[in-house]
Amino acid sequence: MAQTPSVAFTVTVANFPPTWQTVPTIAFAQGVASSVSVAAYATDTNGDPLAITKNAAALPPGVTYDAANKRFVYDGVGAVGGTSGHVLTADDGRP
Amino acid sequence: MTHTAPARDAERRAFLRLLAATTAALAMGGCTKQPVGLDQAPTPPVVTTPPPIIPPTPGVNAPPVWQVVPTITFAQGVASSIGIGGYVSDANGDSLTIAMNAAVLPAGVTYDAPNKRFVYDGVGAIASTSGVVLIANDGKG
Amino acid sequence: MATGTSNPFNVGISNTPTFSMPSVQDERATYTLWGWTWNEATANPVYDSAARGPSNPNYIIANPDIHGDTECDDVWAYLQAYLRRTSGREGYRLRAKGWRDYYVNNFNPGAPEYNNDASFLYDHFYGWGLQQYATQFSDAAAGAKALTISTALHDWWAAGGRSQSGNWPVAGVFDIAHYGHRGPSRNLHTAVAIADATIASGTPDAKAIELRDRLIDLWLQSPDWDDVHGMYWVSQEQMVGYGLIPPLSYAAGDRAVSSFHIGQLAEAFFAAWLSPTVTAGRKTAIRSKIVAMANYMLHNGLDPTYRYCASELGIRGSGAPWWVYSLTAPVTFWDGVYTTSIVNLLVMGYKLTGDRNFLDATPGNNLYPAKYCFNRGTKSIYSFTDTTREAPDNVAGHFVDTQFDSSTEDVYLAHNKSELQYTYLIFENGGSPTVFP
Cα–Cα distance between C347 and C301 in angstroms, integer? Predict the structure, then answer.
């Protein structure tokens, strides 16, 4: 019988690190208290829940990053202004 | 001034157009909501030519031929399957049975020979097995 | 720890309106966020010429059947199509202008189509698009006509409207949704737009402001509001008109609503809630109504068998939900436009509560978030099977308001004359709409 073996290969069960869609400019209207969630922009192929933290770049006065709820919150008071260089890190809790 | 109850707008008009539609219009699948693309002839699908198969020498059986099988990767936590039948071919067109060697697969992963695929149950932990080999048999001498 | 980092981005506070119409780029970003693919040339074609159909080479609107054919403020729809994109858009501008010209020059008392819709309780009168056109292009004639329309509506309502009583209908007594929600919704939307435009220009129009506030109060206090279920129901007379009685029975407690009418009401309420001049008390009450209606549609908007919102739906006296699919046997056609009609309302539920169930939770029986309804509704093809669809779940078949209705020789937009009016909120911030506490 004609038998042919394949070349040896690997079968693996793996964790995938979280991936990000492009996060747009997070824009608030002065005087209007509101929030924008960032949860939707990060995904995990394994379906792991993600912790999302922000870097140390300073936010405009009146805006905070609410890590527990994965959102930026504006108090409606802070003056017109903006800052750049914000980076979010999603952690899936796996080694 | 008297007034009549307004008709149920979209549905009433759709119903009336339905009554007036020709068989051809009905065959096109509707009245008021045809996508604009139906106005033109549909574009025929692109047909890609498969790579040529070297014809076998008459009277001689050709053994199955394997492409390189890449790492088979499952996402931990996600039940899924990955077929491997596409990585092997037989010039005579023989149907193939594909067996796996004695490598011990990661927990939760099994080789499903009748369906020529690896199946992961979505539960097994992160792990990796190297040295997996598949053997294709065309059942001919 | 396995981590992934985002791109660097900006966070800003600016003097922008509370809400701005999401662009086509926002629409692309939303589809990308969802993991959808599309063919740009076919899903979002360049549209530089208005000429469509043999009888409208220059897109001139003459003698339209306002009552019978329009289901959207066509000036608004084409103006948004023009403003949302930066290229391939001249055709949309010409269409907006074509409707602007019609309204400015020909939409007058005495014109047959004007009088006809007036006899149907002014239920297809618009004006907010004409007002925005006036502001966008500094078009005084368009602004003047928008004001004229608003004044005509005011004078009709001040004389009793449907009640013909000789004075304003009485809030708390007058069942405003008697013949359906779309007429009084559109009238409110017109009043909000003209009131704010005239206030902003320094010459507040007292009639527009009065019409706006009176209509808000009529809605908020209307006896056809069902606080148990969170919905305004139509009258028994209208249910008969819809052909629902029998098998339904008003006396037995069966109630009905037309789905795209609710979409029109949601738009009017949202405009009032966004207005910088509507009182805080009215806004609070409007917000409560929006959230209640969104909650109704989240759980009972779609028929669980076909996963479409029927043209009419509601509650039986027993409390069980019904859809017209389950009333008429056998079901003969499916039309996804009604499913599309509730998308903005569901996104409003998210924007006003932050509850992701409204926006993009995993759908299930009796849970139909906005993203799911957008997918179901916009890809449905009006047909005689419930499974005929334009594209798979992860593909965008067409961008909203890029297709035309061939049964009207492409004069009108396809999909019940505009999908954008019911869906634009889902594209805000590229798919993560701003939430208000």
Answer: 14
